[in-house]
Structure formats: C-alpha cells, structure tokens
Amino acid sequence: MANRPHRSPLLPGLRILGIALLLGLLPAGGARAVDPPYQGQMERLAEIMGSLYFLQPLCQPGGEDWRQQAAELIEADLPDDDRRERLAGAFNAGYSAYARLYRACTLSAEEALTRLLVEAERTARDIHTRYAE
To answer: Which Pfam family would be a valid example here (predicted)?
Structure first.
C-alpha cells in the first residue's frame, strides 16, 4: 500500500506521554554513575522510536519526527556518555532493523508500524507510572 494518508489515534496520546515522561524523569541532581532502574525500558523505547523513524515516513508521510522526539527524551534524562551512546545505539539499531526489511510500505510494514506505536505508548506509560510519580 503506497503512502496512504493515515493518522494513528495513538500519536496525540504518545506525544502527551512523552512530555510527561520528559518532565518526570529529570533527575534532582547531576548525572548518575549507575544506570537508573528504567534504563532497559528507555533503550527499548529508543529502539522503537528508531523503527518508527524509518517506518512512518514510508507508510504515513508527514507524521511525527521520531528522531527529534528521541533526542529530546534522551537530553531530558541527562544521561552520562555511556548511557547516551547506548540509547543512541538502540535508536540506530531500530532504524537499521526495519531499513533492511522494507523499501516500500506493505501490509506487513503497516502492521509493524501499528504494533510499534502501541508498544511505544505502553512502554512510555509504564516508565512514567513506575518511575516519574
């Protein structure tokens, strides 16, 4: 299916969750030497955002700028250099994984996009609920 205009109802909710996550995860002090308990989830979220950065323009041009959102999320978390590299690496791995599979929007790509949006929203909500309140 070539470039059908379609807006997911999850995008506004994900944007709101992203903002809440950004505000809620700001550390009280300086950078941490030890990974926070949500690091694994943050890496998965960064990976998903990298995947979305590849897939959404393929299937839904004009959508969210997932690269910018990931950069803002990483910046707001104030990671040390090691964590920043792991988060950026996860984003790049997500992008590369889908770039190897798809050259055009297919039913499979659309399904992957939908599943990734749902997982991103669930992961962001879980991080926010468990660690930002």
So the answer is: DUF2385
